[in-house]
Amino acid sequence: MTNVTSSPADPAAPVIQITGLHKAYGQLEVLKGVSMTAPRGHVISLIGSSGSGKSTLLRCCNLLENSQAGDILFENEAVRWKGQGQNRAPADRAQVTRFRTNLSMVFQQFNLWAHMTILQNVMEAPVTVLGEDRGLVEARARDLLAKVGIGDKADAWPAQLSGGQQQRAAIARALCMEPKALLFDEPTSALDPELQQEVVRVIKDLAGEHRTMILVTHDMRLAADVSDHVVFLHQGVICEEGPPSQLFGNPQTDRLRGFLSASMAQ
Ligand SMILES: Nc1ncnc2c1ncn2[C@@H]1O[C@H](COP(=O)(O)OP(=O)(O)OP(=O)(O)O)[C@@H](O)[C@H]1O
Ligand SMILES: [Mg+2]
């Protein structure tokens, strides 16, 4: 559990760096030269209207999507590419697996495996992908389930849990990989307001532990509370970014002002 937290020796070393990223789906240009850094121990929130490219950026970060230009660095190591433009893809499968296991993702729809118990869900990747000892992983998985407040649900099936409990199980599953950073894609959007708060509490605890996180969210209060840095994406470009006090307290552009007032009205 130590490698996600900040190292006092070098607290601001970048875990993830993206420079000049371009991504298109066919003719549709979704990311038009995006640069972003997640320093160790920092929480970066990504906000913006629907379709602005937030999920795409997160998925490119994790190499779940190919991008056509720009660099992605993980702890200063650049992704190695083969091909160019529409044909560009990561060249080194082992590097992709290493990067992905170090950047655990939590999705809006939880994506738990329905045929496995909660404990099996949390243990699966460390045992099968990382080849870790089953006994050690089980102890860690049980600790993590207790940490997110569902220690008593280890032997339940996903369908027997509420949405908030399922999302907390998904967070425990992501943490069990002992990643260097966590990527959240709207982790509370599929939940009723009351269940959202259970998940918000867990995310705030993780932020308090200085874990490196990129958080895509429509919850402006959560972004304001947990972020060190907020990035406002508009039509595939970063329109404004800065500390939450600046972005939420003193937005500089009409676009951000419009987005924030529409968000508050919801
Ligand atoms: N697999 C895909 N194929 C084609 N177009 C896609 C694909 N995925 C996303 N897009 C398009 O890319 C654009 C950005 O989508 P993305 O999902 O990144 O937006 P978003 O900011 O996450 O939106 P939301 O807030 O609704 O989740 C949208 O116009 C979307 O329709
Ligand atoms: Mg999205």
Provide a concise account of the structure shown.
With 266 residues, the chain is of the alpha/beta class. 37% of the residues lie in helices and 25% in strands.
Question: Could you give the topology of this structure?
Answer:
Layout: E1 14-25, E2 28-39, E3 43-47, H1 54-61, E4 69-74, E5 77-78, E6 81-82, E7 89-90, H2 93-102, E8 103-106, H3 118-128, H4 134-147, H5 163-176, E9 181-185, H6 193-208, E10 213-216, H7 220-226, E11 229-234, E12 237-242, H8 244-249, H9 254-265
Parallel strand pairs: 3-10, 3-11, 8-9, 9-10
Antiparallel strand pairs: 1-2, 1-4, 4-5, 6-7, 11-12
Helix pairs in contact: 3-4, 3-5, 4-5, 5-6
Q: CATH topology of the domain at 14-110 and 182-265, which one?
A: Rossmann fold
Question: Which spans of ≥5 residues are poorly predicted at pLDDT below 50?
Answer: none
Strand content: 15-25%
The total beta strand count reads 12
What is the CATH C level class of the domain at 14-110 and 182-265, in words?
Answer: Alpha Beta
Structure class = alpha/beta
Measured as a percent range, the helix fraction is 25-40%
Largest sheet: 6 strands, mixed
Give your account of this protein's structure.
This protein has about 270 residues and is of the alpha/beta class. The protein has a domain at about 15-110 and about 180-265: Rossmann fold. The protein is built from nine helices and twelve strands. Strand 6 and strand 7 (about 90) form a beta hairpin. The longest helix is centred in the last third of the chain and has 16 residues, at about 195-210. It is globular.
